[in-house]
Amino acid sequence: MSFRTYKLKEIADYLDGEVIGDKEIEIRYIFPLDQANKNHLSFFYNKNFLNNLKNTKASAVILSKEFSGECHTNCVVVKNAHLAYAKATKLFKKEMSKTGIHPSASIEDKSLIDSSACIGPNSVIESNVRIGENVIIHGGAFLAEGTVVGENSIIYSNASLYEETLVGENCIIHANSSLGSDGLGFAINDSKWEKIEHLGNVRLENDIEIGAGCTIDRASSGETLLKSGVKLDNQVHIAHNCEIGENSIIGASTAIAGSTVIGARCKIGGGCGIVDNISIGDDVMITPMSFVTKSLKSKGIFSGGPILMKHENWLKNAASARRSTKK
Amino acid sequence: MSFRTYKLKEIADYLDGEVIGDKEIEIRYIFPLDQANKNHLSFFYNKNFLNNLKNTKASAVILSKEFSGECHTNCVVVKNAHLAYAKATKLFKKEMSKTGIHPSASIEDKSLIDSSACIGPNSVIESNVRIGENVIIHGGAFLAEGTVVGENSIIYSNASLYEETLVGENCIIHANSSLGSDGLGFAINDSKWEKIEHLGNVRLENDIEIGAGCTIDRASSGETLLKSGVKLDNQVHIAHNCEIGENSIIGASTAIAGSTVIGARCKIGGGCGIVDNISIGDDVMITPMSFVTKSLKSKGIFSGGPILMKHENWLKNAASARRSTKK
Amino acid sequence: MSFRTYKLKEIADYLDGEVIGDKEIEIRYIFPLDQANKNHLSFFYNKNFLNNLKNTKASAVILSKEFSGECHTNCVVVKNAHLAYAKATKLFKKEMSKTGIHPSASIEDKSLIDSSACIGPNSVIESNVRIGENVIIHGGAFLAEGTVVGENSIIYSNASLYEETLVGENCIIHANSSLGSDGLGFAINDSKWEKIEHLGNVRLENDIEIGAGCTIDRASSGETLLKSGVKLDNQVHIAHNCEIGENSIIGASTAIAGSTVIGARCKIGGGCGIVDNISIGDDVMITPMSFVTKSLKSKGIFSGGPILMKHENWLKNAASARRSTKK
Fold first, then answer.
1. Which DSSP symbol is given to A68?
2. Which of its termini does chain B have fewer beta carbons within 10 Å around, N or C?
3. Which residues have C-beta within 8 Å of that of residue A215, sequence separation ≥ 6?
């Protein structure tokens, strides 16, 4: 791998920060404090890692003013070190060398694909699929009839977009995710299940990132909607007719059941289960492994993860919980 | 999208129901009460939504006799409104336009594929794969050697069927699901793991639906078996040698460990974990996020999901649970 | 299916065991005690199945000396019956008939692929991908730029390996798994999320098995590392910058958050959640459905799964837990 090299002052200018130390030093990559070495940039924004700051071998560290005294090497002082770190990573991102439509891609109608888009090998683009400027569809991805992908979006390998899935601008959908599968909708018919056909679709607004191995079901009718700025970690499940509010973020392996509405700027930890047909207000935080059974209207932090203990204590606890409820 | 239009009396006849109101009104689509408008059909079967019924703008509503008095618009009175709704959705389902074998599909032996089957672009059909009448294999799906797919079944994009996987009639397997992977079977050999080869397979009887992103392991020997009518939501995991009884339904992100046997007509919520080598009787219901560690023989409803509370209360609760078990 | 047939003495020799009974009997397959019949070999290593041993119809059973008296049929007496069973399965494994590069595979540079490797239909091998001796890449798999797959490794269908993913020797990656997706890394920027570009990669040492539908995120910088002998069940999630120690094994649907380090020889059950930035020592066992929020240094068994009870008791328990924490 070869990357561009920057002088520290160039980086500081880009981050709107100020160098304390050697402005001319060359920076070749970015690493955490404990892994960084000569010509590496690092970052500090979490006091738990203060010891790592003191011992780092990095040539420079991004941090906020209050910690510049703790830094024995060059530093770039910024207002918000976490945000500046995020911006700095963009300097070291490898450029994609791919362009154009790979001859092995199966494309029904090329006239709907912007000429700047990149379509990878052995991908499938069915009929009436519109693909915007600078979109990248990686190899093996599948876009069914009527799909739309807005400009600058990226669809990774082996992702599956069912019929009529709408993806906005600047979205990223990671590998092996499925958007638009039928929801779990059945009516009982004499102890057998009669399928409810799912006639709706999935719509993603802009600036959304969907992790790998996620599943988002199409609506029974209408749409399953992710609003702008939503971020899903890997293996998240969003059921039919859900709505996820702007800039909400959801941790890995969380599952949200049908028709539930999540507000804006929520932070939902990994491994949670949220039942169907409830609503969660704006700015709610739910810690990992929680089970949400009722609507939550107020802002606040809610928790429900099970408590870890030594195995023998858990056995006692289980026996006592079962006993006390039998009284 | 364009759909067929129906007169309300046509729909009532199809549903074996009776119109109260304007039999001639045109119906173009079906929507929930709160989203429906003019020329839309809606449905009511859950009293929690009585307010939506009173305020709906739908041109007609499917409901049972006891609620016809609450309906201010046209209605179709039926015996079982949920079931009638499921049947009504089939009227508005878009027809697939695809037919035939796409030239980019890789097919080892076309003679084993029924001429009515549809095989999508860039899919893979290995040797000795038998595909029945009216089967649809979507783009990017993979069917390994010796797979069988019975008539009217649908395999969605990027699903993976390992060697000898047997799929019955009228089954649906959603995108990115894997059937037939090896189970987690290892024997300790001097603190290293010696692999147990998985020699069995996966068999699905008829009328089964597997959600997106599911994983079903092949048996170590013999078969992992899903009996007719089983429905799995997305991201369900079924381990090697499990057996799931007829018409049982399992919610998203539930994992069932090896050799466990689930009875018929069970309803298992999402996010559950069920340990290996146990058996669960017929008609057992388990609510979401439960952990099942022992066989359950009796009918009944079992629960074990963790309890949500404000974060500060959870911290107190955790401290107290740990303290009390240490005594 | 046709398999090789062995005489019982041949099997005993291979397993370093001793036959009690008919050394010449023909063995055609291996089955659990309750499914085995004439000419089948079976195995016994778990006392819970003693009744099955007494009633088996198998022609022979692998077991340890202390149980030979309980066996009414021929037996192969070995030191470690579980390990001997694992080894015996290898005798009955079907040979792969595939070889060579399928013409429908998209391969950027064949010169980097060992001539003994097998590349399946409609798979994608991008530029600078090195593939070692006897590697098998199944149909529909995707290997991005700069990927390396060491000798004897197998990549199953529709698996996705992102840029620079490094896979060692004798590894197995099951279907629809994703290695190298970006971690969930964002910094807040005025209530919107600024993406942290993930510049690192995923590296797997040797003898690793990754189940179907797993997701392993690339490091933000540096590497997400699985050490030799690690075994993951299906649908496991490993976040960016994690390190999993040698020969640790992780059950299905467990999720491990960013930068957490797991020691060697750990056994982590299915359905667990483990928070970010903690470390778990060597030889720690965590039972299924647990939530790990703090580092665990000592050896030992830890548990935290929620307790199953009748639904009406769970409701009482929930009310009481909420009440007691409000005091």
1. G
2. C
3. A177, A178, A181, A236, A237, A238, B176, B211, B212, B213, B234, B235, B252
d(CA B139, CA A263): 36
User: Sign of dihedral through CA atoms A307, A308, A309, A313?
Assistant: positive
Q: List the beta bridge partners of residue A27.
A: A6
B222: tokens are 């013999």
* Whether residue A1 has pLDDT greater than 70: no
Locus of tokens 């006592």: A320
Half-sphere exposure of A310 (CA within 13 A, CB side): 11
CA angle C292, A277, B245 (to 5 degrees): 70
- For chain C, the C-alpha Rg in angstroms (whole number) is 24
Q: What CA–CA distance (Å, rounded) separates B94 from A17?
A: 56
Using an 8 Å Cβ cutoff, are B202 and C39 in contact? no
Question: C49 is written with which tokens?
Answer: 């199945």
Which residues is B63 bridged to in the sheet? B77
Per-residue pLDDT tens over the stretch C133-176: 999 999 999 999 999 999 999 999 999 999 999 999 999 999 99
> pLDDT, tens digit, for every residue of A60-103?
999 999 999 999 999 999 999 999 999 999 999 987 666 799 99
Structural domains in chain B?
A: 6-92 (3.40.1390.10), 159-302 (2.160.10.10)
Interface with chain C: mutation pick from A61, A234, A313, highest number of C CBs within 10 Å: A234
Q: Which chain C positions have a beta carbon within 8 Å of A48's beta carbon?
A: 277
Closest in C123, C300, C313 to A310, CB measured: C300
pLDDT beyond 70 at A279: yes
Q: What is the largest CA-CA distance in chain C?
A: 78
| DSSP alpha helix (H) spans, chain A | 8-15, 50-55, 81-89, 311-326
CB contact under 8 A, A29 and C123: no
DSSP C94: P
How would DSSP label each residue in A76-114? EEES-HHHHHHHHHGGGPPPP---SB-TTSEES-GGGB-
**ipTM of the modeled complex:** 0.96
**Chain A residues closer than 8 Å to B209 by CB:** 182, 195
A233-247 residue pLDDT tens: 999 999 999 999 999
Backbone angles phi, psi at C149, to 5 degrees: -125, 120
The residue to which tokens 């089983």 are assigned: B230
3 state DSSP class of B8: helix
* pLDDT, mean over chain A: 95
Measured in angstroms, the CA of B194 and the nearest CA of chain A are apart by: 27
- How long is chain C? 327
Amino acid identity, position A60: A
Interface-testing mutation among B128, B160, B162, B259, with chain C (most C C-beta atoms within 10 A)? B160
Pairing of β B186-189 and β B192-195: antiparallel
Q: How far apart are CA A228 and CA A230, in angstroms?
A: 6
Q: Which residues of chain A are within 8 Å of residue B268 when distances are taken between CB atoms?
A: none
Annotated active-site residue C102? The verdict is no
> A254 is written with which tokens?
């969380």
For chain A, list the contacting chains (3+ Cβ pairs, <8 Å). B, C
The CA distance from A52 to the nearest CA of chain B, in Å, is 29
Dihedral of the CA atoms C128, C134, C140, C144 (nearest 10)? -20
**How many CB atoms neighbour CB A69 within 10 A?**
8
Give the model's pLDDT for residue B317.
Answer: 86
Burial-class residue A47 by CB neighbours within 10 Å (0-12, 13-18, 19+).
exposed
Q: What are phi and psi of C239, to 5 degrees?
A: -80, 175
DSSP string, B54-98: HH---SEEEEEGGGGGG-SSEEEEES-HHHHHHHHHGGGPPPP--
Which residues have a Cβ under 8 Å from the Cβ of A19 and sit 6 or more positions away? A8, A9, A12, A60, A74, A75, A76, A77
- pLDDT confidence of A325, banded at 50, 70, 90? low
Is-contact C276 C239, C-beta < 8 A?
Answer: yes
